Amino acid sequence: MLHREPCRLSFRSWLAVTVGVLLGWKPSACSDLPGSRPNILLLMADDLGIGDVGCYGNNTIRTPNIDRLAKDGVMLTQHIAAASVCTPSRAAFLTGRYPVRSGMVSSNGYRVLQWTAASGGLPTNETTFAKILKDTGYATGLIGKWHLGLNCRSSKDHCHHPLNHGFDHFYGMPFSMMGDCVHWELSEKRVGLENKLNFCSQIMAIAALTFTTGKLIHLMAGSWALVIWSTVAAILLSVSSYFTGALIVHADCFLMRNHTITEQPMHFQRTTSLILKEISSFVKRNKQGPFLLFVSFLQVHTPLITTEKFAGRSLHGPYGDNTEEMDWMVGQILDTLDVEGLTNNTLVYFTSDHGGSLEAQLGNNQYGGWNGIYKGGKGMGGWEGGIRVPGIFRWPGVLPAGRVIHEPTSLMDVFPTVVQLGDGQVPQDRVIDGRDLLPLLRGTAQHSDHEFLLHYCGKFLHAARWHQRDRGAVWKVHYVTPVFHPDGAGACYGKAVCPCSGHGVSRHDPPLLFDLSRDPSEAHALTPDTEPSFYQVMERVGQAVEEHRRTLGPVPLQLDTLDNVWRPWLQPCCGPFPLCWCDQEGDGR
User: Fold this and answer.
1) 317: phi > 0 → left, psi -120 to 50 → alpha, else beta; which?
2) Domain assignment of residue 582, yes or no
3) Cα–Cα nearest to 443, from 400, 390, 397
4) Taking a C-beta distance cutoff of 8 angstroms, is the pair 249, 197 a contact?
5) Which candidate, 488, 487, 452, 454, places its Cα nearest to that of 468?
6) Residue 570 vs residue 5, higher pLDDT
């Protein structure tokens, strides 16, 4: 696969470019950038819908700081996540590769890592942009959510830890916000565990009684004492399994600094201030630069933990409150750059890992995001609402202020872009699916380098898009789509997230075809009768899909059952399990 040579910003490279110009060579697209490598600040929201931000059309949730980034920088309107759920999308972001290439997918319905104590995670043979920039002299930090695995064989081997993937410093949550993080709040994860534990307890009770009597038929015939004993034992074991399940899932909600657990469980009313304090400390500590800082917000994933200062302030309930608090955090971070005199030498990027969750809006609850005019949402295969996300870049004096780009781009493009800005080499020993965005952002290139983008759901290809530049069309072909709830609300209610295969999906033959340039809402599927080039589009996209598949190789699937189940010996715990408790952040109370 062909890659651009990285932009060289050192004196040696400047000298080479100067000599080349004297000899009549053309300078590269980034040869006129400032002479020092920029600091790089990457901001990623969790579960934020593209329609939740003011500059993307929202007029009920206040996001002045994100809007300010767009006003002072470049806004992408067709910015696409490589997956519609957290774990695979983030893996693709860090590596510049479709998650199916690294095995960060499953074949059996698991869409993300389910437990901190699961053995799956981002493989150590994958190369992140943090690892490359660390090797070129950048200070690298990750603050916030990780959700790409932690341990492999013991609770302290940290094989998947951020520090094992190129980050010098990590502070935050190795897992992800879940409903379980709030005492006694229900979540699908806990319900599933409790059902399994209850089933096991009942089997144990029956087995014990059978062993005691020697004959189960005698029990059924009238041994009332044993019947009563069986009932009491089953109840006790069920209650025990409930509390054990609550402790296990609640133990996943903890903070970590590098390899040390600092707070378990988390005290959510102070988490935001702790995160901001850590960001400020990192920036001040590394202000001589260059640094790469990835701020991965815990907002706006359920259970939407919002501090009292922002609770009840928005017009969109708990979700709006949480979004406005995150926007305030963005403002605090930008203010830190201003105070330290780093604004002009820092590339800032803002995005979300995927679209907002429609399932979280069940009934009158305001716990999920809005994806604007786009169909579908989080977890919904290739539908636009789950994969089209905000994409904003700001670099004063380098990127034009107020520029809006309608070309197809990807979260995976951040990888080659920052690697080349940081004087690193894009790996040549593997397929990199991202493309350098700098020429497009600066206006020296008219079109995106992406002709095709593929849209996976787990390991299954659900859709593909083709940017037919000569016609200005963006074709979207859906081979598989999730089956929505009969109420027509456009969600898979009753499930934690839409399935990728099996009875919960529809397979289309012929595939569904949309022209996103005319129908971005994917409201009207085209047919051979309504689109003269229907078969030509299908053929060309089909060829691209086959070419892509020939580049795939077999890899272990990190999210399949064996690597995605809770293993007690992998559970991080700063006290005797299961009473995991510690507090190094506060006064110890």
Assistant:
1) left
2) no
3) 400
4) no
5) 452
6) 570
> Sorting pLDDT into bands at 50, 70 and 90, what band is 249?
low
For residues 156, 157, 160, 163, the Cα torsion angle rounded to the nearest 10 degrees is 80
Helix, strand, or coil (residue 435): coil
Answer yes or no: 55 catalytic. no
What total number of domains does the chain contain? Answer: 1
How large is the average pLDDT for residues 515-530?
97
Tell me if 81 is assigned to some domain.
Answer: yes
Instruction: Give the whole-angstrom CA distance, residue 344 versus residue 162.
Output: 28
What pLDDT band is residue 19 in, cutting at 50, 70 and 90?
Answer: very low
147, 169, 455, 467: the active-site residue: 147
Mean pLDDT on 530-541: 98
Tell the residue number behind the tokens 């994100």, with chain if given: 66
Residue type, 97: R
Is position 200 annotated as part of the catalytic site? no
Cα–Cα dist 70/313, whole Å: 24
Q: If 0-12 CB within 10 Å is exposed, 13-18 middle and 19+ buried, where does residue 153 land?
A: exposed
Instruction: Tell me if 306 sits within 8 A of 313, measured CB to CB.
Output: no
Q: Give domain status of residue 91, yes or no.
A: yes
Pair type for strands 403-405 and 39-45: unpaired
Q: What is the pLDDT of residues 210-244, one digit of tens each?
A: 555 454 444 444 555 555 555 555 554 444 444 45
- The domain in which residue 132 lies consists of 46-110+121-178+252-424+451-563
Least confident of 85-94, 365-374, 431-440: 365-374
Quote the radius of gyration of the chain (alpha carbons, Å): 25
Is 131 among the domain residues? yes
pLDDT digits (tens, 9 = 90+) for 394-404: 999 999 999 99
pLDDT exceeds 80 at position 463: yes
Tell me if residue 236 falls in helix, strand or coil: helix
| Chain center to CA of 18 | 42
Matching residue, tokens 């202000």? 287
- Residue pair 201/234 in contact (Cβ under 8 Å)? The answer is yes
CATH number for position 458: 3.40.720.10
**Annotated active-site residue in 86, 181, 573, 580:** 86
